[in-house]
Amino acid sequence: MSERTSGIDTTYESDDLNDTRLPEVILRNGAGHVPTPSAELLDGDARDIRAASVTMERSGAETVTAERVAISNSGTRSVEAKSAHLDHSGVLALTGQQVVLQDSSAVTVTADEVHLVKGFALFVRAGTVSMDGDSRALVMDGTGARPVVSARGAAAFGAGLALAMWLIGRVFGRRG
Fold first, then answer.
1. Are 144 and 159 in contact (CB under 8 A)?
2. Is residue 88 within 8 Å of residue 104, measured between CB atoms?
3. What is the CA radius of gyration of the chain?
4. CA distance 129 to 131
5. How far, CA to CA in Å, does 108 sit from each of 49, 66, 149, 152?
6. What is the spatial distance between Cα 48 and Cα 83, in angstroms, rounded to a whole number?
7. H or E element, residue 102
8. How many CB atoms lie within 10 A of CB 127?
9. Which parts of the chain fold into alpha helices (H)?
């Protein structure tokens, strides 16, 4: 379903066929606090959300695609945004230019800049990463913070694991 209102395109797919589009609110975004229309999802679930700006609170979505995304107490499968701020939320795959994970977690994060505040990510690929003392990134390819395992270390571990599995297969394959 797609509608054009207030200069933004809001596309929303829901399991409830009575919903026609996401509610729209006016937020103050940017350094100049310019009023900006934003699609809003409160206490609901959606499949795909596409808009210029998206705000989610206590909700879930399959995919979110927008210029700016603000997610609070929610979960999504994937997020693609220029600017994404997650607060007490979780995401499987997050792609963007500027990403902030505050008390949030992600499986994979790919961005130009990533800032983790009490956040956790399994795989981070970024140009610049900043983390506070309570944040963790298991495997990271980027500058600015020390991960538990670097990208080179993860590759070496994977190669070693593959070699061990091949050897075990050879040893136990001959007996059968």
1. no
2. yes
3. 20
4. 7
5. 20, 18, 14, 17
6. 18
7. strand 90-102
8. 13
9. 151-173
pTM of the model: 0.65
CA atoms within 13 A on the CB side of 149: 13
List per-residue pLDDT tens for the chain, 176 residues long: 433 333 444 444 444 433 435 555 455 555 555 555 566 677 778 888 888 888 889 988 899 998 989 999 999 999 999 999 999 999 999 999 999 999 999 999 999 999 999 999 988 889 888 888 888 888 777 777 666 666 777 788 788 888 888 888 888 876 54
Asked if 147 and 133 touch (Cβ cutoff 8 Å), the reply is: no
Q: Considering all CA atoms of the chain, what is the largest pairwise distance in Å, rounded to the nearest integer?
A: 72
CA 87 to centroid of chain Cα atoms? 11
**Cα-based angle 12, 3, 99 (whole degrees, multiple of 5):** 50
